[in-house]
């Protein structure tokens, strides 16, 4: 694997480990907590986070809106165990996807269904950003709304 991709995957490992630690401190009942009406509950946010590596992996390959809608129809995780299992599976799938890319593949541009064009490597950077963004949301929900500070390191 390209050394820059290895570094990006190292960052994904860090964010996934910290998310896993936070999930481990929750009960399945906590998943129903919804700090803001009309926004994700903790469980819905975690379900979204767990789907990101697979969903964004499809986007990296130029999946159409219809393909993404079909993908999201298959996303259903209701317990902490299901969320963590899917998160780790989807991460492994994304890593295998990138391990098979040549340098040419990494620097080939693909376009998302909504019209954004990036190289596959740039999409990987977006995936890292996406994961850290939602981890920050989860941490803020737990700390500021529910006074459940997980007391974990968020960065190395």
TrEMBL record:
Annotated Pfam families: DinB
Signal peptide: none
Record SUPFAM superfamilies: DinB/YfiT-like putative metalloenzymes (SSF109854)
Keywords in alphabetical order: Metal-binding
InterPro entries: DinB, DinB/YfiT-like
Residues at which a divalent metal cation binds: 48, 130, 134
GO molecular function annotation: metal ion binding
Entry keyword Metal-binding: yes
Domain of life: Bacteria
Metal-binding among keywords: yes
Listed Gene3D superfamilies: dinb family like domain (1.20.120.450)
Protein family (similarity comment): Belongs to the DinB family.
Protein name: DinB family protein
Lineage: Bacteria, Bacillati, Bacillota, Bacilli, Bacillales
């Amino acid at each position: 694997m390209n050394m820059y991709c290895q570094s990006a995957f190292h960052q994904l490992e860090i964010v996934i480990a910290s998310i896993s630690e936070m999930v481990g401190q929750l009960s399945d009942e906590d998943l129903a907590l919804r700090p803001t009406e009309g926004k994700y509950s903790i469980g819905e946010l975690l379900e979204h986070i767990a789907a990101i590596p697979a969903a964004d992996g499809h986007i990296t390959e130029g999946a159409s809106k219809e393909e993404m809608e079909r993908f999201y129809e298959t996303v259903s995780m209701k317990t902490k165990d299901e969320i963590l299992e899917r998160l780790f599976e989807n991460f492994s799938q994304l890593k295998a996807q990138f391990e098979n890319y040549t340098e040419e593949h990494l620097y080939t541009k693909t376009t998302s269904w909504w019209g954004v064009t990036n190289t596959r490597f740039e999409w990987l950077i977006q995936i890292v950003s996406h994961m850290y963004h939602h981890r920050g949301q989860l941490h803020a929900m737990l700390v500021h709304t529910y006074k459940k500070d997980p007391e974990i390191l968020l960065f190395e």
